Amino acid sequence: MVWIAVIFLILGLTLFWQAGRQKRASGLPGGKIIYTDTSTWMPMQEALYTPKLGLTGKPDYLVRDTNQIIPVEVKSNRITHSPYDSHIFQLAAYCLLVDQVYGVRPKSGILHYPTRTFKIEFTNQLEQSTLNLLSEMQNRDTHKTINRSHQEPARCLGCGYRSICDQRLK
Ligand code: SF4
Fold it and tell me: Whose CA is nearest to atom 2 of ligand 1?
């Protein structure tokens, strides 16, 4: 019986070590993961949504560190110098969502690439530029209606946008 306990202990330690390794590889900062778009750490959650800004999104991770919530976006591009502007705006949009949904304005977010990790400060200037971009996008006629592009009930069933999507399949 003792050997069974030892096997379970070794298994537990291995899983714990693997989880730590995956967490470090994701570029996640210290703190508690409170939201994730993947099922590695916890069940997948629904998209964040703020009717005030008409904004919805699913950050890869949200990490709570004392009084801060840090959005983390993981990208597969192999960049060496600086992050893409589009990725910075995407991260900034998640900062806006966190501010609206959790009532905590992130000071910064993290963009993690396989080659480098960047801490992006969520400055007032970045916030304003993101709000401007958002309103520009929302004012464009072409962005008013984007119709569903598939007929796959299974895909809709597992979709994080289901609760706010008026085109979901039954
Ligand atoms: S149509 Fe279905 S899969 Fe597409 S966004 Fe809506 S709920 Fe998600």
Answer: 156
pLDDT tens-digit readout, 97-125? 999 999 999 999 999 998 899 999 999 99
For residue 18, name the pLDDT band (cuts at 50, 70, 90).
Answer: low
Overall domain count for the chain: 1
Q: Return the residue whose CA atom lies nearest to atom 5 of ligand 1.
A: 161
CA 44 vs CA 62, 120, 130, 161: distances in Å: 12, 25, 26, 11
Residue 156 CA to ligand 1 center (angstroms) comes to 5
> Poorest-confidence range of 7-11, 59-63, 76-80, 131-135?
7-11
Asked if residue 61 is part of any domain, the answer here is: yes
Within a domain: 1? no
Residue 38 is assigned to a structural domain of this protein: yes
Secondary structure of residue 139 in the 3-state scheme = helix
The pick from 148, 151, 170 for probing ligand 1's pocket by mutation, whose C-beta has the most ligand atoms within 8 angstroms, reads 148
* Ligand 1 center from residue 159 Cα (angstroms): 6
Per-residue pLDDT band for 43 (boundaries 50, 70, 90) equals low
- The domain of 99 spans 28-140+150-164
For the chain, the farthest-separated pair of C-alpha atoms sits apart, in whole angstroms, at 69
pTM: 0.70
Say if CB 83 and CB 47 are below 8 A apart.
no
